Amino acid sequence: MLLRTTFISATVVALALLSASTNAFVSPSTSAKARSTSLPALPEFLDGILGGSSDVALSSADFARQRFYFYFFAGSGAGGIGLAQLPSLFREAANARAVAGTGSTRGGAALDAGPLVGIYYDNEISSEDVADAIQKAPTAEFISGRSESLNYMASKGYIVQGDFIKEMDAKKCNPLASYAIYDAISSGKGGVVSPKDYEDKLSAYREGSSAGDVASLFLGDLNKFLAVKVIAFFGLVTCLLVDFGLIAKTGIEGFLS
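Now predict its structure.
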């Protein structure tokens, strides 16, 4: 979901540019009136930003102020969308971390899935706990039939994380292992999983597992989920820094220099 937000941020800026460009088709009388005001018309404003020609000679401060207004309105919309997603990212990780050390565990060796597991979950996950939970996971039909979620997709048979965790708890599975399994099945594509994807992946995990060992496919899917989260986080932070950096730079140049 956060990865999509990064694209949404870029789309907002593109739409702002498209909306601004439509003002280039105003009538000559309208353009003349706009030139008589203290602020330049929007086409001239865009000419100044994009380096095009303009009949109005702008000082460096005026040029910086024009860019400031543009970056402020275009960037703040995209930045607001991005900022709203950051708490969601941390909340998802916090929910999984909160159950670490709770519930029953079979102990044994930790899951060998690379460094991202320890970073995201802030805890080791028992390989035997995961293998046990994979074998005990109920069918999609069973989970959907007992769903208590108000999520619209859950009413259509999709598996939401809360319903999955509830049923896994009822089967005495290790809570952290249950979160890891759902994350691997979802592959970072959102908080719901289609019943077909759920059944197909569980079947593949079971076929590739042996006593106490976890299928390599599961490890690959879990790392795919973690990679999506990492890329989304750093991509989002980078976009926010660029947005706010441009706003701050042009604001200082236009109003404080």
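The CA atoms of residues 128 and 212 lie 5 Å apart.
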